[in-house]
User: Which sequence fits this backbone?
């Protein structure tokens, strides 16, 4: 559906179909490579529209992929690699923004809506219960009504 | 001449939309028969005028009339015929014209098939539809006129973006737009009901088929777009949490919630106020999506600021429609009477739960999509919100929702028995556990979450089957009577079960294709063989080929299993000459529900080339599941109760299905 974005955005952005990671970039150590792939999926190709460096074939994405691998080979931890990139490129490079004052609303929105909705429903149910605890509802059925109810239930169950 | 005719028809349609906006609504409020009777003919005429306009633009494309600016920018004389037609909506102006065409088409459908609606409701609904049409026709004419001429026409056009030169463009946008715009009818119904201050179960019964129709098309549109991206983009992804995708996904989430709350309203007259609000929200999100993709605000806040005409116009439209309808809601909703009561553990309760989670999920997507734009506009700080964020916030909301899906339909209305419902679902639970164990056995203990995901999907699927079996009491009445009862089940019961089954199928595809995919990235020389998930893939070589408006290098691959050739694939790299734009055509071979996916990368020395090979287990289930969901919607639309509209006493006796004691 990214085409839709090209279709709709006036075809300005380089969304040329991608062939991202190249064989010569791949590290020999499978464990390191797996970490590199994991990190790449969370890093943004900053000249692309919402693509990770793992998905993009832009030259910048390639540079970043190589850079991530260089840092890993040099012995950096995942966090150190991310800190290194954020220091250089800013938080824009992270596809999953850090939790903080500036992203509080972003991270909190879904849980808050869920919680507020649950509380709202709870309150509504309680209010309705109080409203309807009037005597009319608790009058027992008369015999004639019971007989009618039974016949209705029977006919429906048949 | 034809082009000018199309332009003129569009202007005329705008004038009619102004009449439609005022006269029937006024008539509905004053109960004036004459004024109300204006609505239907005007709506139908508008449809034909916009159709003429659309046809005129199509003719300009077919004739490669490059004196029309829009055709010159987006077409080429050598382009294959089908892309000349689909190219009509492969650009801003044309796709907006399609949007408006579908908008007035839906209006015309209500005018033609709405005979059993009360006259005031029908006129007011069409009137509100007229407001929306007027806004968008004015937008087209004022800022995005597709019929602009160029004084000195060029000889050749600029061609259509090559990525769009695909059968996907013929299918995906129209489906998506029918879904998007279809929700306008629900919106118009809701606003009309607020205007008239009257809303009842009959209202929900009229609204539900329209919602279902729009929802089915939106489901198909999103799913088609996903498959298109998957095979065209060349890296095997099928969902990117791209803002443009989110723009279509948000109305889907809200529409799904609406679909469920409308059931409660129809059956039990409860949740009225919420249903009306959801109807407004759903179309508002469609409008928001239109704004996001049309204004250019997604590219960057600055792009919006440098060419603000279109963006500002839609933003104003957006504020008028959303702000206006919500104000009307705040003013009139308290007039609506509360409906039936229900205990928390009941069919209604489960549908409320569904709405709660879908709303929260929709909020997560909405905030995630808009937050970076808002933050940059307010503070200048740039952040990215991408797939990892959505997977983390949206994903967890789906787990409890899917777990609850099988419970809903087996619970009774008003007051359900959770224990009894659980007992009915023992079978589903058992099958799900078995599948979890099987997956562990097959793939080992390395991944814990994936087998659980498989179990959850299977739980939903088997739960849907259990629902049908329970409804006909298959094990109590025996097979023969059971089958006759199957036929007696109402369409909506089938619809629910089928759609829920589809959700499970899609979920299964997502889990397996994500968790168990096998990927190889390597450089291959002719004669090299690579193995993925037990399939041997041999590269034979690469050869150039000339297409109608592109050149391509085609690689030839042979797939073997146990030494036997099972398929040959020809993925290619194309260069579209008019725009000098490269694309990748993936080679895909389907085995059962799984696929082998091959795409070419950069050429290396000699005849070698970079290749990316995937085995994607059960990936097609993602799209098959969505097809099943749409089929479910069709079953539900076909339900007699929805077709008969307001049942008269005689019709009502017929309409009561015989095999639904739960109702």
Assistant:
């Amino acid at each position: 559906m990214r085409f839709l974005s090209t279709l709709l955005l006036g075809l300005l952005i380089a969304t040329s179909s991608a062939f991202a990671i190249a064989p010569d970039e791949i590290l020999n150590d499978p464990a390191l490579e797996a970490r590199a792939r994991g990190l790449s999926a969370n890093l943004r190709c900053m000249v692309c529209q919402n693509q990770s460096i793992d998905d993009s074939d832009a030259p910048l994405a390639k540079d970043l992929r190589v850079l991530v691998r260089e840092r890993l080979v040099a012995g950096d931890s995942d966090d150190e690699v991310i800190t290194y990139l954020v220091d250089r490129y800013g938080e824009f490079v992270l596809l999953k923004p850090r939790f903080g004052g500036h992203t509080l609303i972003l991270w909190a929105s879904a849980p808050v809506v869920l919680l507020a909705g649950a509380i709202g429903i709870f309150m509504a149910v309680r209010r309705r219960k109080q409203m309807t605890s009037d005597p009319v509802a608790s009058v027992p059925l008369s015999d004639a009504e019971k007989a009618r109810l039974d016949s209705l239930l029977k006919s429906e169950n048949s | 001449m034809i082009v000018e005719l199309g332009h003129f028809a569009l202007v005329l349609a705008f004038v009619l939309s102004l009449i439609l906006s005022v006269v029937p609504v006024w008539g509905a409020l004053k109960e004036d028969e004459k004024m109300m009777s204006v609505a239907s003919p005007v709506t139908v005429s508008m449809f034909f005028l916009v159709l003429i306009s659309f046809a005129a633009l199509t003719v300009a494309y077919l004739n490669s009339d490059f004196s029309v600016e829009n055709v010159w920018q987006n077409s080429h004389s050598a382009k294959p015929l089908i892309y000349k037609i689909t190219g009509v909506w492969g650009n801003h102006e044309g796709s907006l014209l399609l949007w408006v065409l579908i908008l007035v088409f839906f209006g015309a459908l209500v005018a033609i098939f709405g005979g059993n609606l009360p006259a005031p409701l029908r006129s007011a609904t069409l009137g509100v539809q007229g407001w929306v049409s007027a806004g968008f026709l004015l937008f087209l004419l004022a800022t995005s006129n597709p019929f602009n001429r160029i004084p000195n026409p060029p000889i050749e056009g600029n061609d259509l973006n090559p990525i769009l030169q695909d059968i996907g463009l013929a299918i995906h946008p129209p489906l998506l737009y029918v879904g998007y715009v279809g929700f306008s009818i629900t919106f118009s119904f809701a606003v009309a009901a607020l205007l008239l201050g009257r809303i009842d179960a009959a209202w929900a019964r009229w609204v539900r088929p329209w919602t279902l129709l729009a929802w089915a098309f939106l489901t198909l549109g999103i799913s088609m777009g996903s498959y298109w991206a998957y095979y065209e983009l060349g890296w095997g992804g099928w969902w990117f949490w791209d803002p443009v995708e989110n723009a279509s996904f948000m109305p889907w989430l809200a529409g799904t919630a609406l679909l469920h709350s409308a059931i409660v309203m129809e059956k039990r007259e409860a949740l009225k106020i919420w249903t009306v609000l959801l109807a407004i929200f759903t179309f508002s999100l469609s409008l928001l999506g239109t704004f996001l993709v049309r204004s250019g605000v997604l590219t960057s806040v600055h792009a919006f600021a440098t060419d603000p005409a279109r963006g500002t116009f839609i933003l104003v439209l957006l504020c008028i429609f959303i702000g206006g309808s919500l104000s009307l809601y705040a003013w009139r909703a308290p007039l609506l009477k509360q409906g039936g009561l229900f205990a928390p553990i009941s069919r209604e309760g489960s549908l409320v739960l569904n709405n709660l989670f879908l709303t929260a999920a929709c909020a997560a997507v909405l905030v995630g999509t808009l937050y970076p734009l808002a933050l940059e506009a307010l503070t200048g700080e740039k952040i990215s919100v991408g797939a990892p964020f959505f997977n983390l916030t949206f994903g967890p909301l789906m787990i409890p929702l899917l777990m609850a899906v099988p419970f809903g339909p087996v619970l009774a209305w008003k007051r359900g028995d959770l224990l009894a419902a659980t007992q009915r679902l023992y079978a589903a639970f058992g099958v799900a556990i078995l599948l979890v164990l099987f997956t562990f056995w097959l793939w080992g203990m390395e991944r814990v979450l994936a087998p659980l995901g498989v179990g959850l999907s299977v739980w939903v699927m088997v739960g849907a089957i259990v629902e049908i079996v329970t409804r006909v009491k298959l094990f109590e009445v025996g097979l023969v009577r059971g089958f006759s009862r199957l036929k007696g089940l109402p369409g909506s019961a089938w619809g629910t079960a089928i759609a829920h089954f589809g959700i499970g199928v899609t979920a299964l595809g997502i889990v397996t294709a994500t968790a168990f995919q096998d990927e190889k990235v390597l450089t291959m020389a002719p004669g090299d063989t690579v193995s993925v998930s037990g399939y041997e893939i041999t590269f034979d070589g690469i050869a150039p080929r000339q297409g109608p408006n592109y050149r391509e290098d085609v690689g030839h691959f042979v797939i073997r299993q146990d030494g036997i050739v099972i398929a040959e694939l020809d993925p290619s790299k194309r260069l579209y000459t008019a725009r000098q734009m490269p694309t990748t055509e993936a080679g895909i071979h389907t085995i059962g529900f799984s696929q082998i996916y091959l795409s070419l990368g950069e050429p290396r020395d000699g005849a070698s080339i970079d290749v990316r090979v995937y085995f994607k287990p059960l990936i097609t289930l993602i799209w098959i599941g969505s097809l099943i969901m749409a089929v479910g919607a069709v079953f539900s639309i076909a339900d007699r109760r929805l077709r008969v509209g307001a049942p008269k006493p005689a019709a009502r006796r017929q309409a009561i299905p015989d095999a639904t004691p739960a109702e």
Notes: Chain B touches chain A through 79 residues (CB under 8 Å). Confidence is low (pLDDT under 50) at residues 645-663 of chain B. DSSP finds 24 helices and ten strands in chain B.
